[in-house]
Write a structure and sequence with these properties.
There is one protein chain. The chain has 188 residues and is an alpha+beta fold. Helices cover 25% and strands 43% of the residues. Strands 1, 2, 3, 4, 5, 6, 7, 8, 9 and 10 form a 10-stranded antiparallel beta sheet that branches.
Length: 188
């Protein structure tokens, strides 16, 4: 009986150590992808993209953002939001655009996981005109990855967000069709 309890304790301890070890792997991670830009009816053109994640958003950071919004409105919210740097979205090549992302979440799925990244709304495709819709809009990047860290993604340039009861941020709606990221994979 005593040996069984010791074995269960050891297995639980091992699981906790492994959980801590795998979450530390996410402390900094880079993904590469290709942003599909269209290019015409018979051509597919794309731009190389790098996504660098420094860390994931904590509950305390979300609570601070929610408080900043309720007390300071849009200006107060963005003053706090812009100080938090969680990730970046970098477009390689001629444009060289580097967008700061201020919130990042990971959510497990049946086949792997999704990563949600949030920044200030802006256009990501070279040569595209920025449409102004008004309101409180964000850039949202969603990566849908399998257990081998490969998959696809979407970039929503003009999305609305909401705070959840679980102290996270979720995309509520978007105004334009998303840009497609293909060949998303981890950079080793």
């Amino acid at each position: 009986m005593r040996k069984s309890v010791v074995n269960k304790f050891f297995v639980c301890l091992l699981c906790m150590v492994l959980l801590g070890w795998t979450s530390s792997l996410w402390a900094q991670v880079d993904f590469k992808a290709r942003l599909m830009t269209g290019g015409g009816p018979n051509t597919e053109s794309s731009i190389n993209v790098r996504i660098h994640i420094e860390s994931f958003t904590t509950v305390d950071e979300v609570l601070a953002l929610n408080k900043a919004f309720s007390e300071g409105g849009e200006d107060g919210f963005f003053a706090v939001f812009n100080k938090i740097n969680k990730a970046s979205l970098r477009f390689l090549g001629a444009r060289g655009l580097n967008i700061g992302l201020h919130a990042a979440y990971e959510k497990p799925t049946d086949n792997g996981f999704k990563i949600f990244l949030y920044g200030k709304s802006q256009s990501v495709e070279p040569g595209s005109n920025r449409l102004i819709y008004g309101g409180f809009l964000f850039l949202v990047v969603i990566l849908d990855l399998d257990k081998n860290y490969k998959g696809e993604g979407r970039i929503y340039e003009d999305a609305r967000i909401q705070f959840t009861q679980q102290a996270t941020i979720e995309m509520d709606s978007y105004t334009r069709a998303p840009k497609v990221l293909v060949g998303v994979s981890i950079v080793k």
